[in-house]
Structure formats: C-alpha cells, structure tokens
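Hey, resending since the last one bounced:
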Amino acid sequence: RSVSAAFWEHVRHLGLQNFPCGLGSWVGGQGGTAVGHGLGTDPAGQEEAMPLDEESPEVLMELLRDRHSPWAPLPDCSPQDQHLREMAVLDPELVHGSNVFQIFRSLRIVGKGVEEVDEGLLQLQQLEELILSANHISRITSANLPRTLKFLELCCNAVDDLQDLCAEPPPELQHLGLGYNRLCGPSPEKYLTADFWPNLVSLDLSFNNFTDLLGLVSQLSTLQKLRILVLQGNPLALIPTYRGFLVDSLPKLSVLDDIPIGPDERRQFHGLARQTELIRSEARVVVSIGEIKGVPNPSTCQQLEVGSEARVITYSYCVTYEF
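The structure tokens again:
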C-alpha cells in the first residue's frame, strides 16, 4: 500500500466535498462561488432570507464546531484537519480537486499499513512535516520526498538500510526520526554525515541495532547543527562510558536520550573522548527479578516432620535472556 493511497483515504475521511463542506448545493450563493464575498447580504448590508435548501457559512461552520453535531470533529482529527474542513466551508475552491495538494504542510499517516513511499507524494509541494510512524516501510526512495520537507518521522517501521533515503535527501531536513527500526550501521558509506544532512538538528536512532560507538560518533561529529540525539535502546548504549563519551565527543549537543546536557556534566566528562581504550566491545548487565508468577513458592510448602518418609519434591528453574 502506498502513501498516496493512504493520503486520499485520509482526504475522503475528512469529507471535504460532503455536507457541510465543499461546493454542494447546500451552500448559499450558487454552490459556494460567492462565499466570503458578502454572501447573504444586500448592498445596504441587510441580511437576505436564505433559500430553504441553502445554508449560510456561519450555520455550516457551527455544524463543524459543535461537539454535539453529527459533523463535529472526529476523535483523531488534528488541528490541521479541522482547519481544512473549515476552509472547505469558507473558501471551498481552495480545497477542491488537486488544489488540496497546495494546502497540506503537515501529513500524518500512522498505523495505516503503508509499505511504499511513492512519487505521488511529490504533488504535496508545500509539505514540511511528514509522519509515517507504525507502518511497514522498509525502504524509502528519497527522490519521492518533497524537497520542502523539514521534519521526517519514520518511527516503528522496518527500515534496515539508508542507501535509498540518502540518494537525494531533502536538503532542508531538520529532524529525522528512525527509532524502532532495523538499522545496524554505521555503514561504510557513512550515511549519517553532513554530506547528506547538512541542516539536521534532531536525530532519533533509538532501539535499533547500532553496536559501533566509535564509528557512529565519527559520522555524527560532522553534523554541525545537531543538538538533539536519541540512541537509547541500542546495544552500544550498554557500554559503561557510553554517555560520557558522547557528551565529550559532541560538544554542541544539548540533549542526549531526552536528558539535557548541563555544564557540570560537560566538565565531568571532559577529556573522555580521547580515551578510546575505555570503549570495549563488551558490557555488563545487571538484571533484578522483582516477582515471578505462575510457579510454586517453596516458602508456602508445608514443612516435613523429622523422620518423615514422605517424598521430597525439588523444583529448579532456568531463566534465559536474549539480547
């Protein structure tokens, strides 16, 4: 399923051409052509009686906004969606047909089973924010992304390679969200450098499979505008000196793993970036088991009397952790 298909389903869901929106016969002034131009008033400013089969823009807007109305905002309706519906009442020509492409500056398609970012997305020539979280996307062809994009969120997909995304990346992108994917880099091609993302301010790589801290830092250090970085959930985050090494290696970073970096922390880890011998390919993990359910508790078993010939039953358990 493509992004374009999900986009048109989203537009149909908004009902921009259905009552009380759009250019229908219910709009006063011959189908809405005069909406916003003195509709429903005479030259002297006196209100005219509306025909029985037409409604004024004010009445139609009230139907959209009243939470008791059948056309009230839907539970998943974003502020932009509501704005589009209101625009379809006040100036329906702007959202009629292909004109709707020029309206969208933000598009959120979450959990819709999207697998392909197709070239139809290029029709959204004003798009600045694209959120495609919780879909089934494994590859993104960057040539199909609008050049105007500043915010791209691909959290919870199946992305395992950045080659296609970095072929022609949006030049003004400021946030790239790739958390909860299948990335294993950094790759030899160095796709996380300023050569591809010169304006990147925020980068989310959390809960992937990055293991090479030194290699990753060598790439991220080229991102001169990077201020927010999320790497928690990767195997490399288990390295004992992980946070200190990053804080000292990326002096312009302001937030790491959602925790602000203060001056005291900077001073505490000063010089750690030069001690690469501390970055070992091993980690220590301490696991504390708070409670186990569904197995017998030996302390509740009845104590056997001395000399009893009753059979003794011994239970043993094995707990396995997979990393």
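DSSP finds six helices and eight strands in the chain.

Sorry for the duplicate.
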